[in-house]
Structure of TATA-binding protein interacting (TIP20) domain-containing protein:
Amino acid sequence: MSYSLKQLKDRALDVDPDIRYMAIEDLRKALDDTSTNVDPSALLLFIPILLDMLKDENPDVKGKAIQVFEPIARNLSGDKQVSLIGDLFDLVNKEVEAGNDSDTLTISVPTLGLRSIFNGNISFTKPVSKQIIDIISQGIHSRSMNIDYAEILCDVYKHLGVALSDKEIQRLATELIKVAYSKGGIIGKRSITSFSYLLKHLRSSQVFNGLIEEISTSSPSTTTLALYSVVLNKEYGAYFQEESVRRIFEDIKRLLKSESVNEVIDYEEMDLDVIVHDNGIRDEALGTLNNFVTSLPYHLVEDYITEVVQIVQTFLQYNPGANNQNEDYDYDDSEEDSDVEFSDEDDALNDDANDDDYISWKLRLRSLSIIDSMLKSFPQNLLPLIYSDLVPLEIKALDDENELVSVESIRTLTHLITKTADVHRVKRRNSDISIDSSSSPLNILIDKYTPGLLNSVYNQLSTEKNLNKVPIILALIESLIKTITTEFDPDYLTQLLVKSRELKIENDSIDILHLIKTLLKVYLFDDIPPDFRDYIVTSITNTISKENSAHIALIECSSIARELFKQIKLSHTLSLKWDYVNDLFLAIEEKVSNYKSYSSDIRQKFILAYSECLKEVEVVDKARWFRIFETFKNCLNLEISVNVTLTCLIDLLGGDKEASVNWDQFNSNEEFINYLSNRLVGFLSTSDSALFNSSLVLLVILNEHHKMDNPSALLTILTRILFGEENSTLNEKQLSSIFELLKYNISQTDITEETIKLFATKVVNNLLNKGEDEDDIGLSSFEGLLTSLSSLATFDVFEVFSQNLDLKLAVSSRILATITHERQLNERITLCEDAILNHLNGRIPLSEDKLLFDVQFIGNIGYLTALDKMNVEVLLELLDKTDNELVKVTIGRSIGLILFREIDTIVPKLLEYYVEYPDKRTYLLHAIKQSLVKSETISPGLATKVWQTVWTTTESYTDLKLTNIPELRCCGDVLALADKFLPCFELSQVLQHALEASGNNISVIYVLNVILKHRITSKEEMAFTDKVINLYIDKLPVLFNIMDVDVQQILMGNLLACLHNRQRVFLPKLNDLVIPLVLQELTAKEEFKRIIPMGPYKYVLDEGLEARKLCYEFLYTITSISYETLKEYDINLNIIGESFIEKGLSDKENDIIVFSTINLKNLLNNPIASEYQFLITQDHHLLNKLIQGLNGCLKKPLKAKPTKQEVDSHEEVIKSVMELIKSVNSYLLAEDHVTSKWPDFYTSLR
């Protein structure tokens, strides 16, 4: 602060207004600067000066003084804040008394100062808020209400109302209701606004319904309707009692006076102003009726639906102007006989009266809106009624003389058709047998209304004055095609085409393009009338060829072209397919080649379309191929197009002739193949991961059919990547491609001892080490390369590998076994067998590490070839004499690998041992598991024996807590493998029995979850799989109640697997059953917390953290589902997002906070967030919660002496929160949603 407060005070009292202005501005800046420490007691000296400045003669000084009250109040204690607000309110009262005019609409200066405090960034405590409300409300309600008081109450109740009790809210709301009725006008409206803010803080259903009774005691008026519109809010749906609903509906009916609408009116006697006035009230009443339909749950609305429909019928046909014009009056319009001369002004007024239609058009418009709201709120309940009683009137309204009504009828009918399709899908999904009955809404639409509707729509296009309706008319036709599909008459398209030509509708209209796209998705190309097919091809060709076509039209045309080429491939009526699409192909090629004239996204879209044509339509003009190859070469040389070009070439060159009709042409051009190969080799040095991946995949495809032009360059790059310092970033798919390429291209001269050493140390030890479980090691691609290395090497490959491999790794023994088998090193096998036998007989004991390796090696080599000295009996004896746990598990696996050739005779014996020796069960299970994994088939009898033995043993465990997870997991794996060989096995019955059994044996539940995981992830459509998954989902409430961490983790893992692999069964139950259960699991459970003493401190360990992380991963997957799927299954992301905000951002674990921010960003990126207006509510309550949560994360303190891990975790939270804030800000800007708090919050962070 550049000046002391004393100096600022002196300057604020200066006679020069500029100096006074700057003094206050300096004070404001100092108070807004968080680094400035201001003494509150010194600050109090400024308050009298600022209060006087509100009466300053200079308006700039006065305005600046208003701005300073909020930062001053922010720096004061609670009691001083109350005092300041009291002083300002006293000034407001003086201004009001001096003005003496309660009807003035000018807000006083002290009121502006007071409101600046309430609308600022001050968080008042509840006691302070209560004191302020008492001062303000008591002072205002003891006086006559005016605009100052009305505005102050709005702010006070909005920001401080949370401090009020329900009884206090009832008292204050009742006062506001009285003011609303007595004052009217802007003061009455602002009182109703204050009333709405009070309701936000109400928690009592009894008080809520009492207020409705208070409203209904007054004579019904537009004020009544305005108050009802406030209470008719979805947020209060649970508060309503049946009597309150009845009161509201009766008052709406009284004001509608629908019974008098059809009365015969003598227009010569009737005062037209009265009609206009009555219709104005009816308009507001219908608006309230619309809220009535949208805000209340169906069980409260159900009894009134019939009357609502009757009201809509009445006002949808109400047109007194038309009745007046149709009267058969006996009049003479000759000017000579007229005794009265009308001025031009009178003629204009008469014209306006006719145009306004006595504002009855507004009532017809409102009626259509009510139909639309009924569709949105209760489609499944009300569709039949709407079709029977309202659709004929909707279709009739298409021809309404008022354009707004006509347009709204088209929109409402479009929505009706869409909802019909949605309801039909839901019923079909739920196997409702009524969906094909003649009374279903879809069949009523098809059989009864489609012909008339299409005829009315066609008539709308008969005149040029309706050209502005073309977009919404086309949208209606599009929705009809999507809904009734094959029932739509394609010949109608020919009529539509003729009409569009008459009206000269532009071919590149985005609405026309949307219609074409829908047609190609719904119909086969051959089923579309020939004239319209030609029109489609010509339209998109011309649109693409035009230089000034809109960006969105070009994007849409590229998508249509791709779909068109797919359809043409399937056509049986086109004999010359290439000739048919030649012009279109040339237009696309021009867009691809002329890259400087178009944006990168357009070029990429057209490369995809270009490729699609070459994939689906055979190029019969051989002269075209030179130009095609040149086009691809150009695309490979440009950064903006290289990635998408490689994706297309993978599609064109991969697969076979069936997949790509021009496959031969591409693969027979050696010049292009060599050029492409060399370019791909160069791309392998890129830092672009997408380009690197595509290059690897395409090189593998090329190597399957072509010999590399320059293999040495490829080998140099591949070995540099494979043996380099950053090879740990390579994923399994990339490694597989690299191994495949090396296998194709490596030669004998390339294989040296140093190369083998690098493979051992850099690749096997670092990259192929996936842990102790051999089942998790995917070595097939490396083993292919290993075979090449072994066969080509001129030295002892086994020796070099064995000297450089980490022999403690399971993968090492498998690699050495492969080399032994490939090079037929039988002496190596004999040495290993003798070593194990000598150890077993006690002659030459082996170290644990050596024994572990030898057992692994003998198992792997025993799988590849028959052994002379080693068999199952020897290994079982070794198992008895070994104490090391890891060696025992390895012995079990090796037994399984060796015995798979004699599985029918040895597994039954192992099962006997399994029952007889409980202490060996885990190891024997590993043996049985390995034998089942390696066997392609086993007899049903053996599979049944395995199942019965292992399952019976599992059921015998009486301990209700999991004591041996590895054994139980292995039990599940073995049972799942046996289940695979029992195709008719009813697993659902086992699951049902286990869940219904008393006590819920947790061991059994865990094993069942392991089995189900195998079923869920299986690519085979096993019998009864859907049945057991359905039962599993239905039993989730029981499963989630099992308080065991391991059960919860595997349960969430299975749900995640269902989401990825079994969507057809899973998605229908997601919204109503699964999501609510998962959202409950986002809160940390006390049962899973364990206190660990650490010296003088106690550390709380949350053992349920991993399960909660899986919950967030599950929800992330949901928010990533496509927009269309979310809409189809009516999955509400808002409730998920709200849980991320309320639970995730306030979690004590940093990992969960980071997961929450990632999930929220992902949700905001889904288009459905915008459609459901996520974060965007009238009262901003969710956005305010988000701000509060983000602030809490940013201000979360570190420990006094944090570890590096804690510092890193804290920094990750800050980073993820800041990224989320940017995403939220971009989302709100895109939605054009501005609130009073978010911009301030966002600016403060900057």
Q: What stands out?
A: Strands lie at 1089-1094, 1097-1102.
